[in-house]
Amino acid sequence: MAAAILDGKAIAQQIELEIKERVAAFQAKTGRQPGLAAVLVGEDPASQVYVRNKERACGRMGIASFMHRLPADTTAEGLLALVAQLNADPAVSGILVQLPLPNGIDQTLILDAIDPSKDVDCFHPHNVGLVSQGRPRFLPCTPHGVMQILHRSGISAAGKHAVVIGRSEIVGKPMAMMLMQKDSTCGSSAANATVTVCHSRTADMATICRTADILIAAIGKPKFVTADMVKPGAAVIDVGINRTDDGLCGDVDFDSVKEVASAITPVPGGVGPLTIVMLMENTLRAAEWQAE
Ligand code: GUN
């Protein structure tokens, strides 16, 4: 039987409605609007699309958007000065520096300079540490989106074997951390899994993937996960967004894997829409804490 298609767009719209209500309540209580500052350095086309989508999402959800577009030859000192200004600005609840930064700018130096209480990407070491200890201040947006898809689709991870393909700081590592947490410490019931992380140096990856009840692909290689790597009845979550000559595609060979899996996310329309709403949620959370 073909897999159920997990509609990330519909789930994101549902969460968006919940956020809109919370933003309205926040404004009624404080007379203030949450605000997200986004910093884009250079002209990377994919980054420009992401940042524009973030601006639009802010507009839909009643969050003020402060856009800072800087030339590609911006220096680290210039960027640090802007981050310091945004850290000090009470109208800015959350700060996002779009990655990748141009060659020559030390990414870690810039991300570590963001005030952890405004770090809505959840990249600062303080916030990564809190997630790993199961007492998060913010949840990283894409892994949180995956947890919401599982949770809201009735897919429990408890006691299941979850295999994460990819060990990036943005997705793979925090994803594994969140799946292994005890109930609800990371924002949803999709937890308590037994987790294996595969990566580019893993031997016999297909055999490991075939033992997964929940398979999460975040490796950045088009159609990497094929049907022979999937256990019949597994839930498959595709985090990949790859631009190919044939257009956008995920890390999963959707057409073959959907015949084996019990549930699967499409690309586009799967995890992508969740990442942006979880960023908006983090911005609202930041504003709520700052108003306390
Ligand atoms: N570039 C690709 N994904 C992300 C993300 O989640 N946050 C930021 N800041 N940049 C990115």
From TrEMBL:
NADP(+) binds at residues 166-168, 241. One of its GO terms (molecular function) is methylenetetrahydrofolate dehydrogenase (NADP+) activity. InterPro entries: Aminoacid_DH-like_N_sf (IPR046346), NAD(P)-bd_dom_sf (IPR036291), THF_DH/CycHdrlase (IPR000672), THF_DH/CycHdrlase_cat_dom (IPR020630), THF_DH/CycHdrlase_NAD-bd_dom (IPR020631). Pathway: One-carbon metabolism; tetrahydrofolate interconversion. GO terms for cellular component: cytosol. Keywords: Amino-acid biosynthesis, Histidine biosynthesis, Hydrolase, Methionine biosynthesis, Multifunctional enzyme, NADP, One-carbon metabolism, Oxidoreductase, Purine biosynthesis. Residues 140-290 form the Tetrahydrofolate dehydrogenase/cyclohydrolase NAD(P)-binding domain. It catalyses: (6R)-5,10-methenyltetrahydrofolate + H2O = (6R)-10-formyltetrahydrofolate + H(+); (6R)-5,10-methylene-5,6,7,8-tetrahydrofolate + NADP(+) = (6R)-5,10-methenyltetrahydrofolate + NADPH. Homodimer. PANTHER family: C-1-TETRAHYDROFOLATE SYNTHASE, CYTOPLASMIC (PTHR48099:SF5), C-1-TETRAHYDROFOLATE SYNTHASE, CYTOPLASMIC-RELATED (PTHR48099). HAMAP family: THF_DHG_CYH (MF_01576). This is Bifunctional protein FolD. It comes from Blastopirellula sediminis.
